[in-house]
Specification:
Elements: E1 3-7, H1 11-23, E2 27-31, H2 34-43, E3 48-52, H3 60-68, E4 75-79, H4 84-92, E5 97-100, H5 105-118, E6 128-131, E7 134-137, E8 142-145, E9 148-150, H6 154-164, E10 171-172, H7 173-179, H8 188-202, E11 212-215, E12 219-222
Parallel strand pairs: 1-2, 1-3, 3-4, 4-5
Antiparallel strand pairs: 6-7, 7-8, 8-9, 10-12, 11-12
Helix pairs in contact: 2-3, 6-8
């Protein structure tokens, strides 16, 4: 069975979806905002997303674009907008299927099964991140570096996964505080300490980085290393 992320702000609809999907044997997580959905997709992963368009913080079509920037996980749109042009636009923007409300649980299950069959070759791809020799299993919360398991704390894992989901992108400290620590403000020292611990476990230093690069005055970037790992055989 699949791991399903339900993104729906209406508590009654969300409860009904959770009840049906759980009864069908699926593992279900649910959120009520686009921001929470993006966090779940980036940090935990899933097999399929059921995405409502009428979210309180961001239109679902914009959330779809942002999800597509993170992963190819199948997305089924749940919408009350029975407009052909809108549906075509959403499919072209990356949605895998759509359902017009109201719909039955059986209808949802049939659409989910079809989408998962079509994505069979890439099923589970949204649950892993690969950057160079780093392989991150978002669902199991496990990290391998060149095949060897790393022992990371919860915060170290969240920090590494957030950066690995955006390879080559400089992420500001303010964004890290908001998205990883989920705090609106804090000190740079908090982030620097965790980066130092993480670098040590990755076998690198700030002066000799491989994956984690500090961009002075801007933030942090995770890159694919270009040279051999220190201490490795030539």
């Amino acid at each position: 069975m699949a791991t399903v992320l339900v993104v729906e702000d209406d508590p009654f609809v969300r409860s009904a979806l959770i009840r049906h999907l759980t009864g069908a044997g699926h593992a279900v997580r649910s959120v009520g905002t686009a921001l929470e959905a993006l966090r779940e997709v980036a940090q935990v992963g899933c097999d399929v997303v059921i995405l409502d368009l009428g979210l309180p913080d961001l239109d679902g079509s914009e959330a779809l674009k942002m999800i597509r920037g993170l992963t190819d996980v199948p997305v089924i749109i749940s919408t009350a907008r029975d407009d052909e042009n809108e549906i075509v636009r959403l499919l072209n923007a990356g949605a895998d299927d759509y359902l017009v409300k109201p719909f039955s649980g059986e209808h949802l299950s049939a659409r989910m099964a079809a989408v998962l069959r079509r994505s069979g070759a890439t099923a589970g791809a949204g649950q892993h991140l690969q950057v160079g020799g780093l392989r991150i299993d978002l669902q199991r919360r496990e990290v391998l570096l060149d095949g060897a398991a790393l022992d990371l704390t919860r915060r170290e894992f969240d920090l590494l996964a957030f950066l690995a989901a955006r390879p080559g992108v400089v992420v500001s400290r303010r964004e890290l505080l908001a998205e990883v620590w989920r705090q609106p403000y804090g000190t740079d020292q908090t982030i620097d300490v965790h980066l130092s611990w993480l670098r040590r476990k990755l076998g690198e230093t700030a002066s000799r980085p491989r994956y984690l690069h500090t961009v002075r005055g801007v933030g942090v970037r995770l890159d694919v290393p270009t040279g051999p790992r220190p201490g490795s055989a030539p």
